[in-house]
Amino acid sequence: MLLTTHNPYKPAVIDWPKLDPAALKRVTSLPIWDIVVQTEGRASIRVATYAGTVEDPQLREALRMNGGEEARHKLVLSKLVEAYGIELAPEPPYPAPADPLRAWMLTGYSECIDSFFAFGLFEAARQSGYFPGELVETFEPVIQEEARHILFFANWVAWYRRTLPWYRKPWFVAKTASVWFSLIRDRISLARGFDKSGAA
Ligand SMILES: [Fe+2]
Ligand SMILES: [Fe+2]
Asked: How many A from CA of 166 to the centre of ligand 1?
């Protein structure tokens, strides 16, 4: 399903809607752009690295596509940043992860948690008019894609767990627990460090 529902849009041709000064200020002053750009950068290398370890050709192809879509999200965001004159902090390097499976699971579960909130916030921003409707519309392909990734990941977890021999199942449970531990820890430190500079 992931392979057959790919949307071949080109970030370069996205027509960013013109924003009135108040809306532009709201969009550019959100303290999230560095985090989202870096998250997409990390996601693409993590998914691509895991794809390289997978033997099954169809699963590998789906994972490659998933990683490619993450790289494209980053491109979409770089175009948005350019279009609205948002200043970004210098990006850190994105090295290939040492444990590709863990890295893939980190990204997969992150998308599940973060999208749960991000989709809701997007809808709240649309309904309240905090973001103009045209801008929310422009993000629709990215939102659709993250929804596909989540569905793919949830199915991957179920399938992966099922195909493991019984004696490796405890290892996978421990791995999953350690992934969740990292995710919760990262989000706590993010919330604590949010807007330390007072910029927002
Ligand atoms: Fe993404
Ligand atoms: Fe994704």
From this structure: 33
Does the residue 82 lie in any domain? yes
The alpha carbon of 151 and the centre of ligand 2 are apart by a number of angstroms equal to: 10
Amino acid at 14: I
Tokens representing 128 are 């309240």
Ligand nearest to the CA of 112: 2
**How many separate domains does the chain show?**
1
Is residue 58 a part of any domain in this protein?
A: yes
DSSP 110-141: HHHHHHHHHHHHHHHHHHHTSS-HHHHHHTHH
Q: How far is the CA of 111 from the centre of ligand 2 (A)?
A: 6
Rama region for 140: left / alpha / beta (φ>0; ψ in -120 to 50; rest): alpha
Widest Cα–Cα separation across the chain: 60
To the question of pTM greater than 0.85 for the whole model, the response is yes
Identify the pLDDT of residue 139. Answer: 87
Residue 6 lies in a domain: no
Q: How far is the CA of 130 from the centre of ligand 1 (A)?
A: 22
Q: What's 168's domain CATH number?
A: 1.20.1260.10
pLDDT < 50: residue spans in the chain:
200
Q: Over the Cα atoms of the chain, what is R_g?
A: 18
pLDDT at 30: 85
What is the CA(28)–ligand 1 centre distance, in A? 20
